[in-house]
Specification:
This protein has 95 residues and is α+β, with helices and mostly antiparallel strands. Helix 1 (7-18) crosses helix 2 (22-41). The chain starts with 6 loop residues before the first helix and ends with a helix. The strands form two sheets. The protein has a three-stranded antiparallel sheet. The protein has a two-stranded antiparallel ribbon with strand order 3-4. The chain contains three helices and five strands; from the N terminus they run ααβββββα. The protein folds into two domains: 1-44, no CATH class; 48-95, IHF-like DNA-binding proteins (HU Protein, Chain A, Irregular), CATH 4.10.520.10.
Length: 95
């Protein structure tokens, strides 16, 4: 398994491919992350064509196991984040 790309490496790639400075690339990446986060907090789905679909799902209250004690505990209802790869990126990875 290869080492994952960290933020500084991603910023360097964006700057090189986008013909911009690293500072501009950082600002662009931070803006994209902030906008996606804000939309998901508002309960909206975000689709980046060819890349991914970001959505939230409501999860009901349920019982879960405490891994350290083995006891069952009640967990309140919450929201989960689901990210699905779109067809374009799946095709590129499998080509």
């Amino acid at each position: 398994m290869t080492k994952p790309l960290n933020k500084s490496e991603l910023v360097a790639e964006i700057a090189a491919h986008g013909e911009m400075t690293k500072a501009e690339a950082v600002a662009a990446l931070d803006t994209v992350v902030a906008v996606i986060t804000a939309q998901m907090v508002a309960g909206k789905t975000v689709i980046l064509p060819g890349l991914a679909k970001f959505e939230t799902r409501d999860r009901p209250a349920r019982q879960v196991r405490n891994v350290s004690t083995g006891a069952m505990i009640d967990k309140a209802a919450d929201r989960a984040v689901k990210i699905s790869a779109m067809t374009g990126i799946k095709a590129a990875v499998n080509a």
